[in-house]
């Protein structure tokens, strides 16, 4: 016979098999633990008495690529695009059957694939020179000497007449030689960079040739500063561009989805 007393188990008198009663060993108190079933039961009661907060799984990050901007070119803008595209194709000898802006982008892609960097820049400058009659270039250079008026005129002219080429843009103010001037064109999202999706095409077929052509043909220094994160760009008229070896634009690796190399490369610009 056993008696359970608050965790103590006490041995009692024992009747041996001979019929003679004898006393067992002195009373031994032994500390005991509740059985495993008792543990489980107690745990269940405790768990039932308190609510358990279940943290929902973290939502997976969703990465989306914004759709490209839609352009509805007028017949006059379409004519200007095809005109420039044709002159690029004539300079390279590589023709394509596309129309509109796709034709211009394809023509510049052909330049990138077929010619080395110096030739690419030279061919685009040549195409720009052929697209604008020489007398007009000479007249603008002669009539408009470098001045605040000329810098602001070029900025305003670009926003009005070249949005079909670079996308929506606006004139912004900057400090030039200690005074405020509206000599900066801010391109909100460059149409050419968005369509080409290539850093090398931006720098070698737009930035460098444009800087070279505008300065050489109009006598107007201009520094084009692309932002490859949001595809915006600033054209700062009157500012000399840095040397190519020091220009941050030439230290930028290309996009992972570059449409020319189709890989994330460091040498798209050289």
From TrEMBL:
GO cellular component terms listed in the entry, alphabetical order: plastid
GO biological process: strigolactone biosynthetic process
Protein name as it appears in the record: Beta-carotene isomerase D27-like C-terminal domain-containing protein
Alphabetized Pfam families for the sequence: D27-like_C
Organism from which the protein derives: Linum tenue
Annotated GO MF terms: cis-trans isomerase activity; iron ion binding
Domain Beta-carotene isomerase D27-like C-terminal: 164-245
PANTHER family linked: BETA-CAROTENE ISOMERASE D27, BETA-CAROTENE ISOMERASE D27, CHLOROPLASTIC
Domain of life per record: Eukaryota
